[in-house]
Design a protein that fits this description.
This protein is mostly helical and 89 residues long. Helix content is 78%, strand content 0%.
Amino acid sequence: MVEMSLTTIADAMGVPLHALEELLDGHSTEAIASRLRTGSQLVQEFIDGRTSTGVAAAIGAPPAFVQDLRERLGHDGAIGLLVGLCLSR
């Protein structure tokens, strides 16, 4: 049942299931980065605790604000935000 739910979420995000699974494990993929219209390394940096202009542009906020948001969200919150961004595109 969990597999089916992840498949549904991945479909709604517009990415393959393996890309969602990698993201939930804390790893960026080209599919996620493409959906956010930025580079995979920039997405990985965001997951790891740093922000970039690419991720800030995807969020639609200045990099300084996004860095503060990232610090407040923590690792899992950052991943949740990326899932939400993919869902909204």
